[in-house]
Amino acid sequence: MRILVIGTGGREHAIVTKLATDSEVSELHAAPGSAAMAGQATVHPELQDASDPDQVVELAQQVAADLAVVGPEAPLVAGVADALRAAGFAVFGPGKEAAQIEGSKAFAKDVMAAAGVNTARAEHLAPGASAEEIDAALDRFGPHFVVKDDGLAGGKGVVVTDDRAEAIEHVQAVHAAGNPVLLESFLSGPEISLFCLVDGEDVVPLLPAQDHKRAHDNDAGPNTGGMGAYAPLPWLPEGGVQRIVDEVCRPVAQEMARRGTPYSGLLYAGLAWGEDGPAVVEFNCRFGDPETQAVLSLLKSSLAEALYATATGKLAELAPLEWEDAFAVMVVLAAGGYPASPRKGDALTGAALDDASRVLHAGTRKEGDTYYSAGGRVLGVVGKGESIDAARAAVYEVLDGIELPGGFYRTDIAKKAAAGEIRV
Ligand code: GLY
């Protein structure tokens, strides 16, 4: 099978790394790809705009792809999957309408209401709302304010704060960018990311994971795209994944099918597990980053087969997925100044930089034999072990051997889970 993966980041590096080990894959292409993927796939830096449907279709034709896998949300929301399907390609990723589940939080709320899915109470604030209207809306929420950018924000558009002034500031910033705001009630309980392969009404969950969104240890600092993750979740109640599938993911898939926009691809449910069980924080229309790097490192079954079955409407025929009986912890090495203004152009050193089983590249470029930082999240290091403690030890040992001037990482990824401090 010839597979074309669209994207450049750590999530796509994880997808490429797994596909490169699958026996069904005869040719692997990544576009634009990255220097770090070049050892595993033919990279296509000539793809100028991954969100331009014509450019992506042209490339898929050039490489005669049997399957196209669209990694990031922007091309999906822009309709790249629709264009590929119209040109006759099997595609892993939802069409433009179904991708609204991530592209518009208001759309996602509407789907959830129709599907009877438990989620936060929400209110929409359009750009142009007066100071009095913003104040009155905030009065109906709090004391914890959840202020979301109702557009694509790369996982960074949410501010959760007890500080009313900070909440107002974020409302104004989102409005200044021309986007509506969604105010939500605060959902308590530990967060879960559950990725499901979805093909119409068929839903197959992957391992549950947990992201760490704040920049610094002890959940201090600003929200980021994600500073680390681990999988699976030892604290999740027995039957928890099935409950999320039954109460959240399948009802949403059924509602999308009922609307005539059936979902095909990866449905990412971001949830909080509170007193009443799972409640949806958000949906994404693609694999999550950084959770994917941890989850896929444990997948024993063929990813190529699973993605192809989803893309071709045969998910119901897929054999149950097999997983390593282990834990994976993934820690992001970020550039100094991330997320506000990451510094770039620093040389990376470390023996493991080209070992994709342990180091996945998110924001690097290569000159000669040297990698340089080229993004906010630079690397994602993955460690595995029979316990979370063992996986944590493995990941931090690799990180100890990598140098990035000014770079930083959290030292507490999965620490609470390892200590048994997460309870539901
Ligand atoms: N893990 C957050 C995201 O992928 O949006």
TrEMBL record:
UniProt KW Hydrolase keyword: no
Domain ATP-grasp: 109-312
Superkingdom of the source species: Bacteria
Record's keyword terms, sorted: ATP-binding, Ligase, Nucleotide-binding, Purine biosynthesis
Annotated GO MF terms: phosphoribosylamine-glycine ligase activity
Main enzyme class: ligase
The EC number(s) this enzyme carries: 6.3.4.13
Protein name (database record): Phosphoribosylamine--glycine ligase
Organism of provenance: Corynebacterium massiliense DSM 45435
Source species taxonomy: Bacteria, Bacillati, Actinomycetota, Actinomycetes, Mycobacteriales
Gene label: purD
